Amino acid sequence: MKFGPVPVARAEGAILAHSLKVAQGRLRKGVRLEPAHLDQLRAAGITEVTVARLDPGDLHEDTAAQNLAEALIEGAGDIHLTRPFTGRVNLIADRPGVVLLDAERINAANAVNPMITVATVAPFHQLQTGGMAATVKIIAYGVPGAALGRAADLARGAIRLATPVHRTATLILTEIEGGPGDKGMDAVENRLTGLGMRLAETLRCAHDEAALAAAIGQAAGDIILILTASATSDAHDTAPQALRRAGGRIERFGLPVDPGNLLFLGELQGRPVIGLPGSARSPVLHGADWVLARVACGLPANSAHLGALGVGGLLKEIPTRPQPRRAQTPT
């Protein structure tokens, strides 16, 4: 691609590099200059313009962005592309889900030519319908077709959306004298709604191992969520023991995500069971969001997977936390 200033008389067919004011308004950058445009420029007293002119074998920015975006979602489903505009195409989720990325392939595509770029959300980022998974941006007005072809081959199929395989959940609340009651139910239900799931039922029982085990056994949802009135502080505390008593097992107690440390994950006859910490009553981003999204979408979520969430797992502080992470300054 050739780039630089040229006399207006020689600019026909070139791509205008900078927007310019003319009597009729503005000629926007990126427009391919036609004779009528040149007349407007001359009328405005402009004799020279900065333009880009594609070489043989170059692809226009919009064509290049479209080709690369199509390669990224090849075979993905549940993701659509926006119309190319100024060298940009966005990748949009058609349904709620979790974004799965092949970072190595995307990095390789970004290394082909600095003018060819792919920017994505973080791996396993949860999207709602209409959320943006990635954007392709061609920085220059055109790029060599051969370079774009290499980038597309490297990035092919590197982005997909895992969508929920579970449709319903049961929420079990335990109760104690003076406990939180129904506080936080809306936050939990909103988390499910964001995944396209439905809260099928809410069960209440005493904060007692036997009572909770009975409630777990009665739960009808695809996923069982347990929110206890008193914090679960050990792998053998009331809620984990109740799950074992009901015939289930604990996969992991403790999460290297804050807030979310006291979460536990288990299963009962093939159904996932998530023990929610009291901090999950808040609607802010929480380790429970990460675990619930993976479980809902049927992604691997064993102890090792949860243990790997620590890098990036220090989430935003909750102002109402009873014990903030930042120590108070002595007086």
Kindly describe this structure:
The structure is a single chain. With 331 residues, this protein is an alpha+beta fold. Helix content is 25%, strand content 29%. The protein is built from nine helices and 20 strands. Strand 3 and strand 4 form a beta hairpin. The longest helix has 12 residues. The mean pLDDT is 95.
Report the portion of residues in β strands. Answer: 25-35%
Mean pLDDT: 95
Q: What is the CATH top level name of the largest domain?
A: Alpha Beta
Helix count from the secondary structure assignment: 9
How many domains comprise the coordinates? 3
Structural class: alpha+beta
For this structure, the CATH topology of the largest domain is Molybdenum Cofactor Biosythetic Enzyme, Chain A
Q: What is the helix fraction of residues, given as a range?
A: 25-40%
Provide keyphrases for this structure.
331 residues; alpha+beta; Molybdopterin biosynthesis moea protein, domain 2; Aldehyde Oxidoreductase, domain 3; Molybdenum Cofactor Biosythetic Enzyme, Chain A; 3 domains; six-stranded mixed sheet; four-stranded antiparallel sheet; 25% helix
